Please model this.
Amino acid sequence: MTRKTTGIPGLDSMLQNGFPFPSAVLIAGEPGTGKTTLAVQTLFHGAKEGEKGLYITAISEPQWLVQKFLGSFSFYDQEMVEKGMINFIDLGPSIIKNPSDMLDMIKKKIEQCQPERIVIDPITPMTDLLQWRGETREFMHELFAYLKAFNSLAIITSEMSYDDISHSQESYMVDGVIVLSYPEEEKVRRKFLEVLKMRGTKHTTGRQLIDITDDGLAVQAGLR
Model:
């Protein structure tokens, strides 16, 4: 099986040396657990390996704000952005006007950029916008079918708690599920990463301690 290294210290060894390629991986967790950091850190790692990356956001945060936040990490390389190795795209304004065109907009941007790594961060506002129209399930099926057929590593973040995952549509459609959490233990909150699912991969199970520093996110595998 072809694999793509994650660029996250400690994670590759948990996944038999990286994410399966092609595949779609869900990064789930509540706000502030490190989902965006993990996803974009992986994008820049790929860019340094010569792989084009595409970051798509909508509604939650404008792309310029995301870039400003990410600029504080050492993995962020503005030169990669200027060279077009990584493209940041905000679909928010267009999606609000025409929610039913969301999938076509995403496909168009992907086909324009031809990326090997794709991040959709987060997918939650997109599905929420379609829910009242009754179009969420169809959108999810078509999106994941498209991403898997495109021959890329697609990372999709979703704002959900651990309890939400078992009955979420996303978790059943993707090839892998990674959960980030920060439970309170003895009046102290610590951040953890857990690989719940990764097709074709013997992966390390159980919650693993993570640390987020100026260098980005790292997994302290074996520490719980």
